[in-house]
Amino acid sequence: MLVLSRRVGESIVIGDDIKVTVLEVRGDVAVHREELWRELEEANRASASPSDSVIADLSRAVSARRD
Asked: Structural domain tally of the chain?
């Protein structure tokens, strides 16, 4: 795990040509490594998209309640 502590105005240097400077912090800030953020995003997307079988089950349940 990489843990960085920086305050407003402080910087980190990555490699020879990348400098990241904290300009401002507002509220709670979540910081994720890109590969973990992509995994989290995909997991959220998959959770929000019900499968065809789930949709069919819900449809049957709604139809049964109408009868």
From this structure: 1
